[in-house]
Design brief:
Chain lengths: ~350, ~350
Amino acid sequence: MSNFWNPLIKQLEPYIPGEQLDDPAIIKLNTNENPFPPSPKVLTAIEEEAKTKLQLYPSPTVDELREEIGNYYGLKKEQVFIGNGSDEVLALGFMTFFEPGKAIKYPDITYSFYPVYAKLYQLDVDEIALEEDFTISPESFFHSEGGVIFPNPNAPTSLYLELEAIEAILKNNSDQVVIIDEAYVDFAEKSAVSLIDSYPNLLVVQTLSKSRSLAGLRVGMAMGHPDLIEGLNRVKDSFNSYTIDRLAIAGAIEAFRDTAYFEKTRKEIIATREYFRRELEKRRFHVPPSQANFVLASPADIEAEKLFTELKQAGFLIRYFNKPKLENYLRISIGTKEQMTKLLHAIDSITEK
Amino acid sequence: MSNFWNPLIKQLEPYIPGEQLDDPAIIKLNTNENPFPPSPKVLTAIEEEAKTKLQLYPSPTVDELREEIGNYYGLKKEQVFIGNGSDEVLALGFMTFFEPGKAIKYPDITYSFYPVYAKLYQLDVDEIALEEDFTISPESFFHSEGGVIFPNPNAPTSLYLELEAIEAILKNNSDQVVIIDEAYVDFAEKSAVSLIDSYPNLLVVQTLSKSRSLAGLRVGMAMGHPDLIEGLNRVKDSFNSYTIDRLAIAGAIEAFRDTAYFEKTRKEIIATREYFRRELEKRRFHVPPSQANFVLASPADIEAEKLFTELKQAGFLIRYFNKPKLENYLRISIGTKEQMTKLLHAIDSITEK
């Protein structure tokens, strides 16, 4: 604590991301990364861009990438905002649409960066308890004072909320912005992007870090009514004109163009998730029906924390939260089928001891 | 203006960066970019990194790059903070060290992003008038209520303030943070980094966008006492865990390792600046003694705005600000000697008409 920090900064409780280890001997299933590399076309685009003009600033408006994403989703570029990873997009969203004194609603079990943003921007919060089975009750998000945010699928529960329920939440918050954080939506049923033209209060946030294998490149986006996008751009342009570098722009464009690679890897991860879930259930784990690239799993024959610790010793990194309601759960990212089979063998060795 | 924006956002006046045109026919001397590409070793490092693991998150603590910069300047990594371009570093600095109700001091002619940050963070400001010759009077920055920030060399004046004067400002603001924004310092006499161990209230901000030819990669840094760096990291980790992508980290490390390339290109730009300045003076321009990779220049035989417009028509993009005290000045980035010679010919054609 330093006297040079202002009073707000002294109170912050920063977000702590999952461990990032570079040890190739470890099977890393703790931060929901994609086990597959990005499309080879993405790498070619990055190499080409690097050769040409890294000494020049990138486009501050990122129009080309916004148009590409617009084409993919049937939106205009004025409906697309780009940020330095979806965490930056979310932070700017909190800053633009929420305000001190008007409580925002988010689930009590959710992405743990939301309370951190709320502190940073001095927002009041109304944490809504999930149901016993970890599902979201739409009615409990109606009539917020200051806005709503939740991930769909939710993290770390992995559960998906149907678009009908999201529509009900939008209708019952018509004067407030509702942010749907779709970091994992490509592993789920359907994006809420289809609702954008009907609900001017809907902001959909996505990332290229999960389904598009580009966690290392830092690109996220928000989609919504042009007024919401303009608000985000005003804040971004008051903070940092050039948030996305040339290589990230070039790579991200190609990631949206190569739909064949995207569909292939996405479907393979979904198939592996279903295989892994069945195998865990055979081993008496409770596993809510995941629509993400991870599962939340509760073992019956061993304490979750003990299993987490023993798996770490055996070279498998997964995530244990040690939070109310999640004490006996583990979050496990979906890797390749080979990685998940190895993990199942390791679980068997530990539980059979 | 949308009702979904909060009251603060409605009041913002975002920064407007210089035009970024991709037209290769234009000689672009308007945003102080480096005319030379980055070191070939930087490009190799980027290509190698792209091949390995873009699907994995980068290091959230960026330790390897912090150590490399620390080695370069004789600092520990705990004295180095990394951000997504120096604009992000500055924004986070404003947020961490300055606070509403305590006016900060900066020059009346300076980097035009400072008033934008001040609005974003609702800070009171005390704009200090430069002397007639655009120099900074150190005494006028003594005893600030809330902190001090200015670029050295200042932009767009191009003038450098000696370290003795900076020490006097530091001594007379011992309870406040003094941010020296050294975006252009590699084209000047000496960095204030040498003062860091003596002044715990000094934060030095630099960028890889100018002297290291990496405007397209978005990397900036702050250096100072470990307490100041820890404060910046607290805010960063409450905003966005992973601000620097893997390719930017790999490229930036190599940019600091290849000192030979850096020295060669840096010296060439300084030599071209001196040549260009002499040539402008021969043509009766008033040109303050620049220590940056640009000059501020006032023509005697034509209005600055007219020259700006005619040069644009002739295919040369420079910067005209249309602000008090700068009405008859132009800011011209230093390109290659060939580019500057072409520009001089174009100026001759216009003024001899």
